[in-house]
Design a protein that fits this description.
It contains ten helices and no strands. It is mostly helical and 307 residues long. The radius of gyration is 25 Å and the shape is elongated.
Length: 307
C-alpha cells in the first residue's frame, strides 16, 4: 500500500510538471485589452485608407476594386477579437488575431494587384498626400495603445516569473536539481529589465523582439522542468516495484535525450538580429516540444498502469 501511494505521488509530480499549460495568468485580460486597442488602431487606419483611396480614384476617374468586403472582414475580425477579450478567452483571442492577420495579408495583396491596372500619376499623388494625415493619426493611436500594452506586458511577465520561481522552489524542495530552471528564470529577469526600453522605442520591431524572446524562454523553462522531473523520478522508479518499470525507464531516458537535444537546438539569445528567422525557429521549436510534452504525459499514465 505504501508503495502504491508512492507511485501515485510520483505520477502526480510528473503530471504537475506540465501544469503551467493550464495555469491562468491574472494579467491575461489586461494583456488582451491592450492588444485589442493596438489592433483597433490598425483596423481603423486600413478602413480610412481604403475610403481615401476610393475618393482619389473618383477624383482621378480611374477604377479601383470594391473594398467593402475587405473592410467588413476587418470589422468582423475586430469584433471577434473584442468579444474574446471581454470573455477572457485567450485561445479564441489568439485565433481571432491569426484570422485578422490573414485578412490583412489578403487585403495587401489585392491592393498591390489593383495598383498595376489602369492607374494615373494623379491618382498615386492623391493617395500619397491623403495617407499622410492618416498615418499621423495612426501613429498617435498606436503610441497610446503601446502605453497600455507596456503595463499589461510587464504585469503578465512578472506573474509568469513569480509562478516559475514557485514551480522551481517546489521541485527543489522535493530534492530535484533545478539549476537549469534557475538559469532560465535568471534570463527571464533580464528580459523583464528590458521591457521599458523595448516599449520606449515605440518601434514595433523592438517590441516584437521582446515577445519573441519571451516565447523562447517560456518554452525552455518547460523543457528544463521536464528534464529535472525525469532526473528526479528515475531513481524512484528504479527502486520501485512497477511491473513495467523497465519500459518506463527506457522511455524516460529517451525522452530526456530528445528534450536535451531540443534545448540545445532552441538555445536562447537576447540578441535577436532577424525577427522573422527567430520567430520561425520559435514555431518549429514549439511544434517539436508539443510532441515531447505528450510523451512526457504518457509516462505518468504508464506509472499508474504498472502500479
Amino acid at each position: 500500500m505504501v508503495r502504491f501511494f508512492a507511485t501515485v505521488t510520483l505520477a502526480i509530480v510528473i503530471m504537475a510538471a506540465l501544469c503551467s499549460a493550464v495555469w491562468t495568468n491574472d494579467a491575461a485580460p489586461q494583456m488582451m485589452d491592450a492588444r485589442y486597442e493596438y489592433t483597433a488602431c490598425n483596423v481603423e487606419y486600413a478602413n480610412d485608407w481604403l475610403a481615401m483611396r476610393e475618393s482619389c480614384a473618383e477624383e482621378a476617374d480611374v477604377p479601383v476594386f470594391d473594398s467593402s468586403q475587405y473592410s467588413q472582414k476587418l470589422d468582423d475580425g475586430l469584433a471577434g477579437l473584442k468579444e474574446a477579450a471581454d470573455e477572457g478567452d485567450s485561445w479564441e483571442f489568439g485565433l481571432s488575431m491569426l484570422e485578422l492577420g490573414g485578412n490583412y495579408i489578403e487585403l495587401v495583396g489585392k491592393v498591390a494587384q489593383d495598383a498595376l491596372t489602369d492607374k494615373t500619376p494623379a491618382f498615386f499623388s492623391c493617395v500619397r498626400e491623403g495617407e499622410k494625415p492618416l498615418m499621423g493619426q495612426r501613429e498617435s493611436c498606436l503610441q497610446a495603445a503601446m502605453e497600455l500594452e507596456r503595463d499589461a506586458a510587464k504585469a503578465y511577465f512578472a506573474n509568469e516569473l513569480d509562478y516559475a520561481k514557485d514551480q522551481t522552489a517546489d521541485l527543489e524542495e522535493l530534492g530535484a536539481d533545478t539549476s537549469k530552471m534557475d538559469e532560465v528564470v535568471a534570463k527571464g529577469d533580464g528580459l523583464m529589465a528590458d521591457a521599458d526600453a523595448a516599449f520606449d522605442s515605440h518601434d514595433s520591431a523592438e517590441i516584437a523582439k521582446f515577445y519573441l524572446r519571451h516565447s523562447r524562454l517560456v518554452l525552455l523553462f518547460r523543457l528544463e522542468k521536464m528534464v529535472a522531473t525525469i532526473d528526479y523520478a528515475e531513481p524512484i522508479i528504479e527502486a520501485g516495484s512497477n511491473g513495467n518499470k523497465d519500459e518506463i525507464l527506457q522511455k524516460g531516458r529517451q525522452l530526456r535525450q530528445d528534450t536535451k537535444s531540443l534545448i540545445s537546438q532552441c538555445a536562447y539569445s537576447d540578441d535577436v538580429e532577424d525577427n522573422l528567422g527567430y520567430g520561425q525557429q520559435n514555431i518549429e521549436c514549439w511544434n517539436d516540444a508539443l510532441n515531447l510534452f505528450d510523451e512526457f504525459n504518457s509516462i505518468a499514465g504508464m506509472i499508474l498502469e504498472g502500479a
